[in-house]
Amino acid sequence: MASVDIQTAPGAELGVFEKTSTQVDLREISPELAPGSRYLIQSPYTEQEHLLDLETLNHENALLARALSRFRVLRHDYATAPYVDSFNWPEVLEEVKRLAAESGKEFKETSFYIVAFRSRIKKTTEYADLGRLDKAAHAEAVASGGFLKYWFGEPDSELANLATCIWRTREDAKKGGTGPAHRKAAGATRAMYAFWRIDQHRLIIRDNVESWEIIPWEE
């Protein structure tokens, strides 16, 4: 199934984010990493402070992060559709398996923490303001460590949307959400959203990527 091309940052179409001298040149850092490349674009934001440093990750986490460069949404109703069915997970995991074989190293069973943020913004919400809050919180989360992938869509005709974060561990996610930018964004939630819900999932990749599953998160 063809993917749905949605990778626009909140507020981007409103001119909120202008290219500056600090923005990373996409010709220099690509999601399709050359061997030995250190930094990975893991979200629609491309400035240096938004890039994932692969040298901070172990073998299994680095391979998944690289494979997630292929992460794509598959359907237009992703805001309300089942999470697993909304993305090309089989393709991503095939890429993990390919990268593992290419590396010549064993891939040990590992689990990862996934957050799906389902929301509906208020008609009065200024999308540009939402974009600024989101971008600041993203840079803060990347700096905290273990933030492998960030994706979000655009509000549908009912103003419903979906954003998802893939983390090394739940502990990393908790740490990444404690800074001032996240507190500011959280404080604006009631004013900006008519509805929101956080779903938690666990991605389990078995030894040598022989199988995988995404299940509801349970401690």
TrEMBL record:
InterPro entries in alphabetical order: Dimeric_a/b-barrel
Organism domain of life: Eukaryota
Protein name: Uncharacterized protein
